[in-house]
Amino acid sequence: MSSGRRADAETQINWIFILAGGAIFLFVIFKFIGVQRSSSELASAAAVRDRLESAILSSLSTSQLYFEDTMNVEDVRVRASCEEGGIFVSEQLGPVDLGPVFCSASLGSDSGNLFFKSVRWGGPISAGSLIFLASDANSYLLVSNPGYDDMISEVEKMLPKDADVERVGELSTILESINERKGKIVRVAYFGEEPSDEQKEELNNIKGVSLVEIQPGQDRMIGEVVFYNKTGDKKAVPYMGYELLTAAILSENAEEYACSANKAFSRMAGILNVTSKRLALIQTSSSDECKVFMGAVIKNIDEVILPNYLSKFKIEETDQTKITGLYGNLTQLASTNNMLERLSCPTVY
Amino acid sequence: MSDSILRRKGQGRMLEVVLAVVFFTALIIFLIFFFSANQRQSYAKQFEQSKNLQASALAQVILNMPEIRCEVQNCIDIYKFLAFKEGVGSRKIFYSPAFGAYYTRKYAYNITLQVIYPEKGTYTIQSGQGNSSTLFEFPVNVYNATSERYSFAMLSVRVYQ
User: Which domain range does residue B127 map to?
Assistant: First the structure.
């Protein structure tokens, strides 16, 4: 009897051993699968990051005004935050700061394409590029207004060519278009007119839909973009050029737009600073006639543009008048450049 | 057959099963570790390649910056380069938007423009130093706006990581 119990006990101990071994085995397998999965996600994110950086490089070396690229971001959740440092393709990798990037905060559908477009910017001068990003998850509805047709056409041209863009009319057609895009993040842009209270109420109640209103100034290249939020509050931020206007339509909100636009203006200030220093170096060995014009340009940059317009520049604290002044001075720079060219003097840039 | 023989036979079979399970578990765990080590090596290689790619990207960014590039032709404007050198030296942070990702990743770089022919001269912009570095060299045309002449030059970008 006693030897039979011992055998039973040994058998039970063996089974416990097998169960423990099995548990360890399963733990190792699941751990391995987890590590593999996160490694593969990280590798995909790194590939998207490299692709974005390559697109930036290609955009820099092209002589074209625009550069476009479409990249597959399947399995990678892309989110953007200018305040936090740029584009996040993976939280582990940290942000990719591509400079002035304008896009919706969430660019991710789990599977889909990311549309990249770089646009030369700077009004009459060249002050680097703005980066536009859109994805399959985003749609842009431009509300027709007969008086602003040319402006809407310019925006259509500026938006990434593969992005989902549609011209819409009355509220009923806007609602119809939104219904066709269930689950998407939709930006509705009004040109030259404030959306009616009915439109604001109807559209603000739909999840994923946000409104902006473009209020151009006398010269349509300069104006304000009004961002409406779900609570009914609104915030107006200026724009300079159709490039920044399009950038505002692509941006998540007024704060994100302002943050990226400030980066662009900061770059402009840097380039103007170099321009002025370069002219000062060239001036000494130029003819008297050239010296006069060069001196005027240096004075314009150092005494007017940089201190009055671009020093501690914050677009959210700037009004349309100041932007108009800056644009006027930049235009003057461009015309002096033409004059220098005609006189066979070294040019401004 | 007596009970004790049957019991011993049963225990023997049980031992066989246990040994087989242990053997296969060990084999699978060994394979997993082998595969993981292999993958780790491949990721390390990829990471190294990616680091080199980023360093090369920084070199390309510098080469194509409107701050130093000629406006129309594909060349480096010597006076822009000198002006940029002056500006970047005094206000390094100012240029962070120009460098974007590369700056925030705390890369340091030395840019040397060696003008070879017909004009001559060496100009360097230094932003810092690091432990390891990668050197990229590009032949470039350099434009002198006062003499209105183009010279052949080498632009070297040493990226410190």
Answer: 48-160
Q: Which residue from B54, B64, B66 is facing A271, i.e. has the nearest CB?
A: B66
Residue identified by tokens 């000494």 is A284
Search chain A and give the residue with CA nearest B43: A43
Which pLDDT does position A174 carry in this prediction? 94
Contact B21 A18 (CB under 8 A): yes
Nearest chain A Cα distance for residue B33, angstroms: 9
Residue A4: what pLDDT? 55
DSSP B2: -
Per domain, the residue ranges of chain A are 263-342
Domain total of chain B: 1
pLDDT of residue B97: 45
In a domain, B118, yes or no: yes
Residue B3 lies in a domain: no
Of residues A293 and B5, more confidence is placed in A293
Q: Could you give the strand order of the β-sheet that contains A164-168, starting from the edge strand earlier in sequence?
A: A164-168, A138-143, A185-191, A209-216, A222-228, A234-240
Q: In this structure, what token pair is assigned to residue A293?
A: 């014009």
Residue B23 inside a domain? The answer is no
Does some domain include residue B13?
no
As to burial, measured by CB atoms within 10 angstroms (0-12 exposed, 13-18 middle, 19+ buried), residue B97 is: buried
Q: What is the pLDDT of residues A31-85, one digit of tens each?
A: 888 888 887 788 788 788 778 877 877 777 666 778 888 888 777 778 888 888 7
Tens-place pLDDT, residues B94-141: 455 445 444 455 566 778 899 999 989 999 887 667 777 888 888 999
How many CB atoms within 10 Å of residue A270? Answer: 25
How many beta-carbon pairs under 8 angstroms link A with B?
132
Residues whose CB is less than 8 angstroms from the CB of residue B2 and which lie 6 or more positions away in sequence, other chains included: none
Helix (H) or strand (E) holding B126: strand B121-126
* ipTM score over 0.90, yes or no: no
What angle separates helix B78-90 from helix A254-283, to the nearest 10 degrees? 120
Query: For residues A301 and A179, what is the distance between their CA atoms, to the nearest angstrom?
Result: 51
Which residues in chain B have Cβ-Cβ distances shorter than 8 Å to A7? 7, 10-11
